[in-house]
Amino acid sequence: MSNMVEVSGLVKNYPRFRLGPVDFKVPEGSIIGLIGQNGAGKTTLIKSMLNLIVADAGSVKIGEYDLSRNEREIKNMVGYVGEQQYYYEDKRVEWLGKFISQFYSSWDGVLFERLLERFEVAPRKRARELSKGMRVKLSFAIALAHDPKLMLLDEPTSGLDPVIRRELLEELREFAGLEDRSVVISSHITDDIDRLADFVVFLHDGKIVLYSEKDSLLSEWKRIHYVPGSLGNLEQSLVNTKETVFGSSGITKEYSRFADRLTPLINKGEVKVENLGLDDVLINLVRRF
Amino acid sequence: MILKLIGSEFEKGKPVMILWFAITAFALVAISSIGSESARYFFEVACPIVCLILGSSLLVMFVEGRESKNGGYNLMTSLPLKISEIILSKFLVALVSLAACYTIIVLVTYLVGGSLGTVEKALFGVNLSLIWVGILHLGSARFGQEKFSTFAMFGVMLSGTGLLVVLTSLKSVGNELELVAALIRAGSGLLALLVSVILYFLLFFATVRTRAKYPEL
């Protein structure tokens, strides 16, 4: 499978924060979820991938284009939805569509109108009259109306109600279902990533500390509840151990290694295995670093 | 692409441009009716210079204020545009507006039968405006439009006061108006225009670098 995005050695320095060096790839047709605490560098990374923030070092390749030489071509093939939506507030939605359309080589005006209709964004409304949810929907319509190959989304669902969040995630899933389309979505709402992503990138303090296929990550990270002493030396490989009503519990990130040895204990009722969500993985990773 | 950007910049600055050009033309017509010849000459020289500097400053601050309020740079840089193209279009629009205002000054002066010699002196206003517009763009890119417009206002007031103090202290040496006239003569030649244009484009490059370094302002 070829890569839609290749980021190598990307570095951005701020007086009190350094992003990178960051290296990662986005396989064509996949959805990458970028998770991390606030201030971990998710926004800086996504903005650097479009030159919205100029990186100090490294390279970004999207499709066949290199960002340093083909910024326009890259922006033409990327749909970007930022955490905040910027519009000329006194202008109507239809004016904004017209204004933006002139800069894209593959803008589809009919599709834009259809998307507005589907998202129930009134074209005659002025930007300042739109609610937060409507602003995000408009941003999605703009991002999708020029037939992007890649969607870069920076906390797009933050601050939205669950109905609109679900609606937009469905839209993204539909987009990713099309051939060769990829999505990079950052969020601290791990539930969104859980629903969507094929791969998870965990960013901590400006560095990628984990890049894994989501399903294999979740199949390896488990919470083990056990009767004290029943695990033998397995207990030493658990992290975040604590006493619970059941007895003791701890987390493993290599469940497949112990599964065979745990099965008899599970059958005896001495051990219970609990699936973890990305939230738990994130919290445990943050504790480790 | 740059032509499309220039078109949209004209659209953004249209209200100020219309007002600026109309006031300039009206002021020149009004000045032509002044009876006293020396007073008329003074205003014929001063008015175009003031109109050029004030008008171009208002245009830049109006458009930059709008961009700052609406996150216009954030919106435009997310489109298939480079920051250098966005800023170049702004510099070119300011340049064309100054040229248009100067043309209006020449035409109106000719139509009302004013002294064409004073029109040459208006080039001083164009040259000064070019540098001032460049500084306004650079300052807005570095400090944000709102903060920098306050700096600029105080800066202009302070330097104006300073200039007055210097001119008053020179009274004993000679006529301060002659000094101003000499300054205007020196600053209204074609060489001065060339220097201003070069400085203008140097300020453009500095603005591009600054805007790329401080994208959130």
Question: SSE layout and pairings?
Answer:
The complex is a heterodimer of chains A (289) and B (217).
Chain A: E1 3-14, E2 17-27, E3 31-35, H1 42-48, E4 57-62, E5 65-66, H2 71-77, E6 78-81, H3 93-101, H4 109-118, H5 132-144, E7 150-154, H6 162-177, E8 182-186, H7 190-196, E9 199-204, E10 207-213, H8 214-220, E11 222-226, E12 239-243, E13 248-252, H9 255-268, E14 271-275, H10 278-288
Parallel strand pairs in A: 3-8, 3-9, 6-7, 7-8
Antiparallel strand pairs in A: 1-2, 1-4, 4-5, 9-10, 11-13, 11-14, 12-13
Helix pairs in contact in A: 4-5
Chain B: H1 2-32, H2 37-70, H3 72-77, H4 83-111, H5 116-143, H6 145-169, H7 176-187, H8 190-213
Helix pairs in contact in B: 1-2, 1-4, 2-4, 2-5, 4-5, 4-8, 5-6, 5-7, 5-8
Description:
The complex is a heterodimer of chains A (289) and B (217). Chain A is an alpha/beta fold and 289 residues long. In chain A, 35% of the residues lie in helices and 29% in strands. Chain A has two domains: 211 residues, P-loop containing nucleotide triphosphate hydrolases (Rossmann fold), CATH 3.40.50; 67 residues. Chain A has ten helices and 14 strands. Chain B has one domain. Chain B is 87% helix and 0% strand. Chain B has eight helices and no strands. In chain B, helix 4 runs antiparallel to helix 5. The mean pLDDT of chain B is 87. Chains A and B meet through helix 2 of A and helix 2 and helix 3 of B.
